[in-house]
Amino acid sequence: MVKELHDHRDHDGDRRVPQTDESALHIATPSRRAAGVPGVTHALDHTLTELGPVRTARTLARLNQNHGFDCPGCAWPDPEHRSPAEFCENGAKAVAEEATRAVAGPAFFAEHSVEELRAWDDHSLGKQGRLTHPMLLDTGATHYRPVSWDEALDVVASELLALRTPDEAIFYTSGRTSNEAAFAYQLLVRGFGTNNLPDCSNMCHESSGSALTETIGIGKGSVSLADVAAADVIVVAGQNPGTNHPRMLSTLEKAARRGARIIAVNPLREVGLEKFANPQEPLSIARGGTTLATDHLQIRLGGDQALFQAWGRVLLEAEEAAPGTVFDHEFLRSSTHGLEPYLEHLRALNWAEVETATGLTQAEIRTTAEALLGSRRTVVCWAMGLTQHPHSVAMLRDVVNVLLLQGNIGRPGAGVCPVRGHSNVQGDRTMGIFERMPEAFHDAIDAEFDFASPREHGLDTVGAIGAMRDGAAQVFVGMGGNFAKASPDTAVTEAALQRMRLTVHVSTKPNRSHVTTGRRALILPTLGRTETDAQASGPQRVSVEDSMSMVHASRGRLDPASEHLRSEVWILTRLAEKVLAGRPGAPVVDWAAWRADYRLIRSAISRVVPGFADYEARLDLPGGFVLPHPPRDERRFATPSGRAEITVNELVYPRVKPGRLLLQTLRSHDQFNTTIYGLDDRYRGIHGGRRVVFVHPDDIASLGLADGQVVDLVSEWTDGVERRAEAFRVVAYDTPRGCAAAYYPETNVLVPLDSFAKGSRTPTSKSVEVRLEVRAAVTA
Ligand SMILES: Nc1nc2c(c(=O)[nH]1)N[C@H]1C(S)=C(S)[C@@H](COP(=O)(O)OP(=O)(O)OC[C@H]3O[C@@H](n4cnc5c(=O)[nH]c(N)nc54)[C@H](O)[C@@H]3O)O[C@H]1N2
Ligand SMILES: Nc1nc2c(c(=O)[nH]1)N[C@H]1C(S)=C(S)[C@@H](COP(=O)(O)OP(=O)(O)OC[C@H]3O[C@@H](n4cnc5c(=O)[nH]c(N)nc54)[C@H](O)[C@@H]3O)O[C@H]1N2
Ligand SMILES: [Mo]
Question: Domain Molybdopterin oxidoreductase: where (predicted)?
Fold first, then answer.
């Protein structure tokens, strides 16, 4: 936090630093309708400036099409019948960000020292454009200099081979890496001798994976697009699809037109959930859009476990009043375990506690429970609002409980739908990017590649930061992502990275992690999804898996931003040759052949990972193919009991000290995680700035503050360390009392490293206790 303080003074004092100018900040009334004409024109504006008209037309025409490339934005699946413009405003922005013609080459790095660049924010860094050359920051050097690929990879190999043990290396992955690259990566890492494979998922849907694996035996969602469209009731909890999964709105719209009841559970009235004007349908726009959510439960942060327990209780009461009308007894008897203790737990539910936890009235909860009662097909969708709390795993087990009571898993039109973030985060996990893969996976790679993979579990994201901080790790490799900014406790994470002997980032664009370096640092520039990946056997395609277990091909067509870019597969296989050549016990792989022809990687995957038989041929099918999912396909639950587990979870909800607020850290409409596209959050009425904190008007008054005042956010955590995010403008906003919101990643400095969810170790980004401190005098 000391650093953040310092940086901020720099920004104010030095006008040459391209910093976000918060004096342009302008607050307007939040909008009431998502997407539609403003959405599309906004996207085209953005793309046109980055790409120019011809490149824009060529690029967008291939986005999410059968022979095109997969959108590098979110992981929402593609519909079977695609419209010619199968993309959304934010997908177009994600593409523009990657396909931009601006470049950050050797001249840029020669002009600016690393120290100077550390005073820039991520918006300014990213705007420089695409990386073009491998760049090395030598020990003691002030500037990065261009190096050959050979030299760069020799540096990585020599630092890795000099470690006392392979466990001193950390291999992080973000969620854009293709299946092929992910599979090669995990094999290189395990061949080197460690399971230290933390990924962005540790900070994202890990709680979903943990809760679902325990209860239904597989950590993935159980629905298809058709199921969502066919549901009677769709609960959308802790998710802002209008911004983060805009194409989901078309599916919700279909369901809404069929009469489905959509229940939004969210502390904020997210505009996309209220009204949606389909950009592909002029009529829908003319009519002012479709109303999506018929009910909005404006829940307090972290109150969802109480809500789901209360819903379970109402279902139980109705079942007891008219036995056989609510529960799916046949399913409960044949396929579940643990019903009775759960029902006992529901009978003991304390309504007063539920009302405190949720901030909702018993009447509101009962009315919405009636919708569940009358539904034969219920889907529950969720994202970060449910996964980033201390009690998220228990909360999600309670979500599963409610669905199981009515047999709503493994039936058409029903199921669990954790909506994933990064476009291939689910596929990366399937390919083995995980610090604790199941034994069966290890057995399979050992057999295929004739080696003995390490079995001891590796470090997850929180564990990796601790190890780096404590000197137990010396080399950090990031396959995509922005570890310095995306991780919690920014000051701790940055200091941890700076203790490394070597930090390496395989990236497309400059970001904060490149300037938060170890003693030596490398930036390895890579091809993006949109670009042609030409190898010895010809242009390559890669494959990805969406949120609903559909695997499909992606093929880039644009000319690469620089002739020096290499594909992730190229980089990893070259590195594998350098690190593993002659190493006793290394996996037996012809890395050069893999690099020349990715079909060989897919062929290996098809022998190792269940569900990938005929991988190559099935990638040719329009839309690809779906992976097996036992609960969805055959109501089979691969838990230790062989049945779906109904669980008893003690009711937990956050409580903060008087005079404090609970803060959630969330995304604006103009960013992709740590990549900031622009400074507007138009749906929430924010323009020209990001340092705002949304607070209920009565809280503003009771804290003795005023709307528009500038405050510091100070985190309150048990360790007594001061974590401070400076200079946020207070914005009166429609959020429950006691529950504030501000943007990620500016607020990551406030999330303590050891504040994470029980059972998944996901940082508690939606549950940070803060106090607001008035700033003496502000220059803005
Ligand atoms: N354009 C764009 N698309 C993206 C991303 C992006 O940054 N930009 N990020 C991608 C990634 S990696 C991810 S994981 C997803 C994230 O998608 P989201 O989860 O939608 O992202 P957040 O902005 O974190 O929003 C959290 C939502 O949950 C609500 N919420 C917060 N706390 C609670 C709670 O306790 N209970 C309930 N019921 N609701 C709560 C918030 O008000 C907000 O609406 O989006 C993916 N898609
Ligand atoms: N406080 C707070 N913290 C959070 C969250 C939150 O809600 N609140 N959300 C968490 C979540 S859900 C997630 S998923 C993480 C995200 O954490 P990360 O995945 O680490 O972060 P991103 O910002 O998505 O990574 C962006 C960088 O990826 C690189 N990149 C982009 N495309 C490619 C590509 O095709 N290949 C390669 N090699 N690199 C590429 C670019 O250089 C870009 O700068 O953050 C987490 N952190
Ligand atoms: Mo995510």
Answer: 130-507
Q: Averaged over 52-73, what is the pLDDT?
A: 74
- Mean pLDDT taken over the chain: 92
Q: Kindly give the distance from the C-alpha atom of residue 508 to the centroid of ligand 2, in angstroms, as a whole number.
A: 12
Helix (H, G, I), strand (E, B) or coil at 665: strand
What proportions of the chain, in percent to the nearest 5, are helix, strand and coil? 40, 20, 45
Tens of pLDDT, residues 330-374 = 999 999 999 999 999 999 999 999 999 999 999 999 999 999 999
How far is the centre of ligand 3, averaged over its atoms, from the C-alpha of 500 (Å)? 26
- Pick the closest to residue 749 from 778, 720, 780, 713 (CA basis): 713
Please say whether the beta carbons of 289 and 276 come within 8 A: yes
Does any ligand 1 atom lie closer than 6 A to the CB of residue 385?
yes
The hierarchical CATH code for the domain 206-418 is 3.40.228.10
Contact 570, 595 (CB under 8 A): yes
Q: Cβ of 705: how many Cβ atoms within 10 Å?
A: 17
How far apart, in whole angstroms, are the C-alpha atoms of residue 565 and residue 768? 40
* Conformation bin of residue 704: beta by default, left when phi > 0, alpha when psi is -120 to 50: left
Which residue, chain included where needed, has tokens 């090669």? 184
Q: What are the strands, taking DSSP E only, across 449-596?
A: 475-479, 502-507, 520-525, 534-535, 538-539, 542-545, 550-554
Q: Do domains 132-141+152-202+424-610 and 206-418 have the same CATH topology?
A: no
Classify domain 132-141+152-202+424-610 at the CATH topology level.
Answer: Rossmann fold (3.40.50)
Buried b (16+ CB within 10 A) or exposed e, 357-395: bbbbeeebbeebbebbbebebbbbbbbbbbbbbbbbbbb
Distance CA 306, CA 408 (A): 20
Beta-sheet pairing, 644-645 with 336-337: parallel
Q: Identify whether the C-beta of residue 188 lies closer than 8 Å to the C-beta of residue 570.
A: no
Cα–Cα distance between 495 and 515 in angstroms, integer? Answer: 12
78 C-alpha to ligand 1 centroid (Å): 20
Measured CA to CA, the distance from residue 675 to residue 677 in angstroms comes to: 6
Closest C-alpha residue for ligand 1 atom 19: 384
Helix (H) or strand (E) holding 172: strand 169-173
Ligand 2 atom closest to the CA of 172, numbered from 1: 20
pLDDT higher than threshold 70 for residue 162: yes
Read off the pLDDT band of 75 (50, 70, 90): confident
90 in contact with ligand 1, CB cutoff 6 A: yes
Q: What residue's CA is closest to ligand 2, atom 11?
A: 204
Strand partners, 774: 711
Select from 234, 592, 169, 546 the least CA-distant residue to 408.
234
Residue 762's nearest CA partner among 72, 320, 349, 210 is 210
76 CB neighbour count, 10 Å cutoff: 26
Annotate 285-324 with DSSP letters as a single string. Answer: HHTT-EE-EEEEE-PPTT-HHHHHHHHHHHHHHHHHHSTT
| pLDDT tens per residue across span 397-440 | 999 999 999 999 999 999 999 999 999 999 999 999 999 999 99
Residues 462/488, Cβ–Cβ less than 8 Å: yes
Domain ranges of the chain: 132-141+152-202+424-610, 206-418
Listing DSSP states for 97-150 in one string gives: HHH-S-EE-HHHHHHS-HHHHTTS-HHHHHHT-EE-S-EEE-TT-SS-EE--HH
Q: Any bridge partners for residue 711, and if so which? A: 728, 774
Other Cβ atoms less than 10 A from the Cβ of 37: the count is 12
Q: What is the C-alpha to C-alpha distance for residues 454 and 452, in angstroms, rounded to an integer? A: 6
Would you say 344 and 312 are in contact if contact means Cβ atoms under 8 Å apart? no
Closest CA to 424 of 180, 90, 149, 147: 180
Secondary structure of residue 451 in the 3-state scheme: coil
